[in-house]
């Protein structure tokens, strides 16, 4: 390389300047002091290290790089450490969509649970090990293909949108549902809980309810299955889209691929929803708690049915008894009414007969005294007049009064006594207004 030299002379002294007359000392130098000086600093330490170990600059840099890598690996050995697959180290960087980004960074055991800090530290560790400059310093002749894989994995996992797209299709994070045969062997909760935990990472609603155990209540189990039957997933499938050409020349082809990708995503989304529904159906069919709850529900239902039948039977029996009692009371009432009616009829008949008898007594009483005719036989006119008055009198009194009158007449055998009884009765009836004065003539004196 050519170098240029520039002369910068000191400025000229003023004209007439003289050191004897113009120079003036403004101070004096102190006496010299002898001190011991020791070399320090990273550069001296590097120089001393090279001298001690007889290394060249390149050898020392290579060994230091290896020690730094080992130091970083030792720091993250407990958290970010897993063996590297030789086949993975030979991956083609162009096939970045097919690589396991978490495995490339050594985060296979964390996957979607890996934090941003863990991803950054894993990236640093991998770069220190696989950086092309480090490998070249170490004398390695490997290409930088895997280093590009590391960079691509870090780029995707540190971008929230791209990482979510990758996590949506990360099959290595899925947990295969156990078979019916394995589930029947026992450990239903231990086998199925990881399945729902893995599927729960796609839920928009957090936290996701856990499967629980055999002590879970019916409400908790129903809440769990209702959540999964109404699962709201954010899972997308853009990561598996066919690459859209960036050039603007073939826009029809670009639109065609975009439509194709959109339809493919919808189809995969529908298939994933159906798959998850089958998983939930299988778990529900194998869940012993559901069988227990259904058995208890049937038992409770049967109990309620039996209680209802018993109550219906009791009410029917009570109704039957009440009906029988009502029928008995009605029968008794009817019998009593019938007996009362018969008794009344009998009494009425007796009263009627008594009235007839008393009427005969009244008519016989006037007949026995010859219709009040003193000499000879009574004329027809006399007989009619007396009997008519007797009938009139009978019509004006009730049965009791008739009986009383018949009783009085029964004791009288002579015409005077009979007429006196009739006269008193006529007088009484006239006084109470039942008869008019003079209406009955043949029965009064």
Uncertain runs: none
Give the percentage of residues in beta strands.
under 5%
N to C succession of SSEs: HHHHHHHHHHHHHHHHH
Tell me the major beta sheet.
none
Number of strands: 0
Gross morphology = rod-shaped
Mean pLDDT: 84
Helix/strand class: mainly alpha
Radius of gyration, in angstroms, nearest whole number: 67 Å
Helix fraction bin:
55-70%
Distance between the termini: 192 Å
Oligomer: single chain
Brief rundown of the structure:
The mean pLDDT is 84.
Defining key terms:
rod-shaped; 445 residues; mainly alpha
What can you see in these coordinates?
- By secondary structure, the protein is mostly helical.
- Helices cover 62% and strands 0% of the residues.
- The protein contains 17 helices and no strands.
- The chain has helices at 19-22, 42-53, 57-75, 86-89, 101-104, 116-130, 132-137, 145-157, 160-168, 180-184, 188-199, 218-229, 251-286, 288-368, 380-396, 399-410, 415-431.
- Helix 6 runs antiparallel to helix 8 (145-157), helix 14 (288-368) packs antiparallel against helix 15 (380-396) and helix 14 packs parallel to helix 16.
- It is rod-shaped and about 220 Å long.
- The mean pLDDT is 84.
SSE layout and pairings?
Elements: H1 19-22, H2 42-53, H3 57-75, H4 86-89, H5 101-104, H6 116-130, H7 132-137, H8 145-157, H9 160-168, H10 180-184, H11 188-199, H12 218-229, H13 251-286, H14 288-368, H15 380-396, H16 399-410, H17 415-431
Helix pairs in contact: 3-6, 6-8, 14-15, 14-16
């Amino acid at each position: 390389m050519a170098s240029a030299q520039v002369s910068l002379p000191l400025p000229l002294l003023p004209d007439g300047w003289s050191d004897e007359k113009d120079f003036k000392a403004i101070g004096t130098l102190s006496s010299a002091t002898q001190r011991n000086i020791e070399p320090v600093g990273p550069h001296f330490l590097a120089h001393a290290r090279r001298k001690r170990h007889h290394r060249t600059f390149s050898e020392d840099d290579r060994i230091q790089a290896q020690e730094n890598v080992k130091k970083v690996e030792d720091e993250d050995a407990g958290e970010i450490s897993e063996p590297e697959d030789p086949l993975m180290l030979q991956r083609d960087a162009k096939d970045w969509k097919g690589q396991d980004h978490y495995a490339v960074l050594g985060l296979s055991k964390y996957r979607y649970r890996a934090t941003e800090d863990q991803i950054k530290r894993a990236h640093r560790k991998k770069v220190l090990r696989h950086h092309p400059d480090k490998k070249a310093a170490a004398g390695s002749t490997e290409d930088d293909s895997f280093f590009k894989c590391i960079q691509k994995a870090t780029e995707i996992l540190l971008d929230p949108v791209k990482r979510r797209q990758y996590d949506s299709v990360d099959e290595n994070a899925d947990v295969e549902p156990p078979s019916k045969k394995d589930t029947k062997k026992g450990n239903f909760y231990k086998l199925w809980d990881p399945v729902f935990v893995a599927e729960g990472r796609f839920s928009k609603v957090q936290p996701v309810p856990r499967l629980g155990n055999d002590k879970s209540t019916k409400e908790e189990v129903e809440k769990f299955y209702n959540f999964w039957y109404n699962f709201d997933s954010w899972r997308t499938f853009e990561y598996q889209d066919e690459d859209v050409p960036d050039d603007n020349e073939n826009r029809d082809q670009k639109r065609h691929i975009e439509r194709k990708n959109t339809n493919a995503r919808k189809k995969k989304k529908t298939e994933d929803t159906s798959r998850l529904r089958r998983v939930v159906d299988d778990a529900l069919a194998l869940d012993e708690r559901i069988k227990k709850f259904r058995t208890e529900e049937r038992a409770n239902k049967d109990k309620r049915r039996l209680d209802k039948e018993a109550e219906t039977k009791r009410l029917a029996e009570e109704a039957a008894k009440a009906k029988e009692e009502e029928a008995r009371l009605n029968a008794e009432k009817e019998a009593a009414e019938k007996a009362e009616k018969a008794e009344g009829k009998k009494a009425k008949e007796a009263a009627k007969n008594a009235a007839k008898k008393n009427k005969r007594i009244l008519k016989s009483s006037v007949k026995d005294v010859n219709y009040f005719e003193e000499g000879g036989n009574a004329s027809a006119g006399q007989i009619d007049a007396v009997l008519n008055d007797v009938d009139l009198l009978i019509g004006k009194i009730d049965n009791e009064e008739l009986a009383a009158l018949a009783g009085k007449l029964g004791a009288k055998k002579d015409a005077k006594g009979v007429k006196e009884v009739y006269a008193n009765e006529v007088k009484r009836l006239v006084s109470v207004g039942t008869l008019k004065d003079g209406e009955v003539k043949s029965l009064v004196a």
